[in-house]
Please model this.
Amino acid sequence: MLMINERVLEFNARWLKDYLDQVGDIEHYEILRHEQHLTIDELEFVTTEIIERKKELEQYKNIIRNFKDYLSQILYLKYVEGYSLEKVADQMKISRGYAAKLHSAFTRHLRKRANNERDTMQ
Model:
């Protein structure tokens, strides 16, 4: 089994969660923008929020795009750019098996993290 430093796994879990939260916020505002009952002021507010959050998201993507470790690059290409794991490996010029092992180690970390959070809630 591939061993990855716990801090590296947690760092990647945090930036990926932050990124996905930002995407979810934008999607929420996009849905609100199409609501029929919005006033002009509310529509302007929602539109401004979408524009600002998309700018922030692009800035965030520019930062995470430059992370140098393989795991960060794999996660960026898979979850931000939407590549398959095979395409990620090809793009990075690493073996598909190695990309899969890194991704698997990350998903194991997420499951362990979720189980720990659930246990502390009980």
